Structure formats: C-alpha cells, structure tokens
C-alpha cells in the first residue's frame, strides 16, 4: 500500500463529511440561508450524538439527561456574549464564580483545613477545564518554590498514571516531571518509590482521585504524610473523581480520604464539566490558602491599554459558562 493510500485509510474515518457537505476554505462571497446552515449542523449533531448515546463511550462525554442539557443551554443563552475578564461590567459573574468555587470547596471538606491551621481558608478559581486547572496549579508551585524556597530547577513527582496535563505543565513551565511507575497487583503508585525520588529540587507531589487510565485512587494518605514531612506542595487531581467520590461517601461506601481532610493536601482540581454535569468548558482549582493561590495570578499595572489582571491562563472568559456551572435547576 502506498503512503498516500495508507494515510487515507487512517485519516478518512475522521472526515465523514467530505463530499457530503460542501467545504469552505475562504469566506464565501454570498452567504447561505440560516435555516440551511442550521439544518446541516443539526444533522451532524444528531449523528454524532448517536455515537456516544449508545453508552459505549467511556470518558469525554458526561451528561445528566436531555432535560438538564436543555435547561443549561437556556441559562447559557442569557450570558453567552459576556466576557468575565471585564468583571466590573458583569457583577453576576463574580457572584456565580465565587459560589461555584465555594460549593466545590465545601464538597471537598475545605472546613477541615482550619483544624490544622486556623489561618488557612480554601480558595480557588474557575478555569476552562481539567488541564488548565492542573497547569495553573503546577505554575503556582513553580513560582511559590522559586520565591519562598529559592528553587530554580524544580521537580514534581507524579504517578505514571496521572493525566498528561501534568507533563504539559512541565513542558510549558520548565519543571522536571518525575514519573513513578504504578505497581502490580493494585496499579497504584508506591509511596516508597515516591519517597526515594524526593530531593532538594522537589517542589510538589501529585496523586489522583481517581486516575483516568484505571479510575483508581492513589495512596493519598501516604503521599500527604510525605508532603508534610518534606514541606512540599501536594496536588490531588480530582478532575474525574472530585464530583463523584463525595456522593459515594454519602451513599455509605467505604472510601479512603481523598480531599482537604488530608493535612498534606495543598491543592485540588475538580471538573464541573465532567461529573458536575455542566456543559463543556469549566473546572475548579482549589488551594489550601490564599498565600499559595496568589502565585497563580498574573497582573501588569502599567500596560498602555490600562491595568490588566487575569487569574488564569485565559484572557477573555465566557460568562455563559460560569452561569451554566452554577445553575443546578430542580
Ligand atoms: C483524571 C483526569 N485529570 C485531568 C483530566 C483533564 O481534563 P480536561 O480534558 O478537562 O482538560 C482528565 C480528563 O479526562 C482526567 O480524567
């Protein structure tokens, strides 16, 4: 088979609309009718929904039924044009975002941090998804360790099963990500193997609750102990499990502790757009206290366009998404 035929065999299944719907490579001279465009998009949406509605897709699509999705879309429409960057023009966004963060923090037992240090108070920000939450937390640890510990060649230790967003952060921010293989028979990270890799450049540890490959929770209590012993940051990735595990507990399932009840946990990510059942485009990243969170922020007071400050990597952020995550309905 020629290279061209080979490529076609790989790529063609991802292009089912080729030849079926017209392709546009520049803005057309004459626009098309709105109904025609809507009908074409409806066909694509219907056919693509059928692929995951079969129930055979694990991950990526998370939904709580058609009625819930319709309600979220209705609410979204009210603020779909709003840019949260300019929060003085949309105080509702401030309210919604704060409430989503506060609800997520309470759900993950933020109150427990007071028992360890009464001055601590869990705080956070909303991001565009799990990856951005993780990336922001890793940048925070890099800047925190540079400023407060003088570490300039930072290393973070993670289970090999942790999400690739951690490696992405390592690439973006010049952090060496040290992978620890998981061990048989339980496929969770071995805390002793983690301990063996801690050195003077280590700034933080990572654990998952649960991880994407196996859905398993790492031995977080042991990692929490290591973080406390060595004065490290400890991020628990609850992007997938953050919005399910608390409810398993309420149902009486016997689970290991996975959140701020562990005294060494300094940050967590939990995705509203996964099992929080918001539409796509939001997540929450939480920190044990504001001293840590401030390393996430960016601001520049003397730009010629005026003072510019933003809490996450994104500049403009959708108001509709913030409202969507806050709207629980009945
Ligand atoms: C455990 C875990 N962490 C992080 C992520 C990244 O989330 P996102 O795809 O929203 O960036 C995922 C995505 O599935 C995940 O399962």
Care to describe what's here?
- This protein has 330 residues and is of the alpha/beta class.
- It has helices at 3-11, 34-53, 66-79, 91-107, 113-116, 130-149, 165-173, 191-197, 220-230, 245-250, 290-293, 319-326; strands spanning 123-127, 155-159, 176-180, 182-183, 188-189, 202-208, 233-238, 267-270, 283-287, 298-300, 308-310.
- The N and C termini lie far apart (57 Å).
- The strands form 3 sheets. A 7-stranded mixed β-sheet has the order 1-9-8-7-6-2-3, sandwiched between helices. Strands 4-5 form a two-stranded antiparallel ribbon. Strands 10-11 form a two-stranded antiparallel ribbon.
- The relative contact order is 0.16.
- It folds into 2 domains: 3-44, no CATH class; 87-326, 3-Layer(aba) Sandwich (Aspartate Aminotransferase, domain 2), CATH 3.40.640.
- It binds pyridoxal-5'-phosphate.
């Amino acid at each position: 088979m020629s290279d061209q035929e080979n490529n076609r065999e790989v790529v063609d299944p991802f292009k089912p609309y080729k030849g079926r719907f017209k392709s546009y490579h520049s803005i057309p001279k004459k626009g098309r009718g709105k109904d025609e465009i809507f009908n074409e998009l409806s066909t694509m949406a219907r056919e693509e929904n059928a692929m995951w509605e079969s129930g055979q897709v694990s991950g990526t699509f998370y939904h709580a039924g058609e009625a819930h999705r319709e309600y979220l879309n209705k609410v979204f429409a009210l603020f779909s044009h709003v840019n949260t960057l300019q929060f003085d023009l949309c105080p509702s966004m401030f309210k919604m975002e704060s409430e989503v963060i506060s609800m997520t923090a309470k759900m993950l037992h933020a109150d427990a941090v007071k028992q360890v240090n009464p001055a601590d108070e869990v705080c956070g920000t909303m991001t565009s998804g799990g990856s951005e939450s993780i990336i922001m937390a890793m940048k925070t640890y890099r800047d925190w360790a540079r400023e407060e510990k003088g570490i300039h060649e930072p290393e973070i230790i993670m289970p090999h099963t942790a999400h690739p967003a951690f490696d992405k952060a390592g690439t973006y921010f010049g952090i060496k990500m040290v992978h620890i293989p998981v061990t048989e028979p339980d496929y969770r990270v071995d805390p002793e193997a983690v301990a063996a890799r801690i050195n003077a450049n280590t700034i933080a540890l990572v654990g998952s609750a649960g991880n994407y490959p196996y859905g398993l929770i790492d031995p977080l209590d042991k990692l929490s102990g290591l973080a406390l012993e060595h004065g490290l940051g400890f991020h628990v990735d609850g992007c997938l499990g953050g919005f399910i595990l608390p409810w398993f507990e309420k149902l009486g399932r016997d689970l290991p502790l996975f959140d701020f009840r562990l005294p060494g946990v300094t940050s967590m990510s939990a995705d509203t757009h996964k099992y929080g059942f918001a539409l796509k485009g939001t997540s929450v990243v939480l920190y044990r206290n504001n001293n840590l969170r401030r390393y996430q922020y960016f601001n520049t007071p003397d730009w010629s366009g005026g003072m510019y400050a933003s809490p996450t990597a994104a500049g403009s952020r959708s108001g509709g998404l913030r409202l969507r995550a806050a709207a629980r309905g009945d």
